[in-house]
Structure formats: C-alpha cells, structure tokens
Design brief:
The protein is α+β, with helices and mostly antiparallel strands and 158 residues long. The protein is built from 3 helices and 3 strands, in the order αααβββ.
Length: 158
C-alpha cells in the first residue's frame, strides 16, 4: 500500500470517529428521559394540554398541600429531575417600567407581589423537535411552608 493510501485510510478513520462522537452528543442532547415520576400516567402529546395541566395541578396540591415544607417539596422534585431556571434574579418586579433598559427581570405573579424567583422548578422531556414541559411556582410563608402553588403543562414542536 502506498503512503498516500495509508494517509487516506487514516483520514477516513478519523472522520468516522468524529462523526460517531458528534452523533452520540446529539443523541444525548435530544434523548427522551420520559416524564417525571410524579406525573404518573398523566401525559399530554398534543397541543391542548389544559386537561393534563389541571391533573398535574391536582397531583401537586394533593402531594404538597398548603402548609407543606417548601424545602421538602423542592428536594423531592429535584430528585425526580426538576430544575431551577438558569436566569433567577434576586426579586421580581411589579412592572417592567421599574426596570432599566437592558436589565433582565421577572414580573411578579398576580398572586404574590413579593414572589421569590428562586421558587420555580421546571422539567422537560421529549424527542426533538417536540417536547413537554411541566413547571411549578410557589410562595412561602415566614416559616418556609408553602403558602401558594401554581403549575403549568406545555407541549410544543419547533
């Protein structure tokens, strides 16, 4: 075998290895880890998730009733794969007019004008280009117990 052919075969091998690594990375990025355990059999696979959102809200309110430890709820859900948002300002604002241009912010929900943006968890799953997202937001009383709990359930495709 000539020297040129050896380099050609080596180059093809390297390209094949790089392609295999890239395919593996893409597959991991878009793998379907499935819904979180707390949902049980509740799963929306179309664009109208309102009924499933109501079922998720019922599950949460039964499992984490007002007065439940917010820390305990957060620990249970993070063990199931729920995550905090990467963007978490220190506090919410009542109106976007309170924010300087270019400054990131989160508006306070109507149910708590002093809401802590840290009190939000999300879980997403699906196979690219479609997926589901469930989330929850809560307020706490002065002793770290749930005072109010909201949830959401979305399904969408790019």
């Amino acid at each position: 075998m000539t020297r040129g052919k050896k380099w050609l075969f080596a180059g093809v091998g390297i390209v094949a290895a790089v392609v295999a690594i890239c395919v593996g990375i893409v597959a991991l990025a878009f793998r379907d880890r499935g819904p979180p355990p707390i949902l049980g059999n509740v799963e929306c696979d179309n664009h109208d998730c309102e009924k499933h959102g109501d079922e998720f809200r019922t599950i949460l309110s039964n499992r984490f009733a007002v007065g439940t430890s917010a820390v305990a709820m957060e620990q249970i859900l993070t063990r199931q794969g729920f995550e905090h948002s990467d963007f978490q300002p220190a506090k919410c604002v009542q109106s976007a007019a309170q924010v300087r241009d270019g400054e990131g912010y989160v508006e306070c929900p109507a149910w708590d004008q002093n809401w802590n943006p840290h009190n939000e968890l999300r879980y997403s799953w699906g196979v690219f280009p479609c997926g589901n997202v469930v989330g929850l937001q809560w307020s706490e009383d002065g002793s770290g117990r749930i005072r109010h709990l909201e949830s959401s359930y979305y399904y969408g495709c790019l």
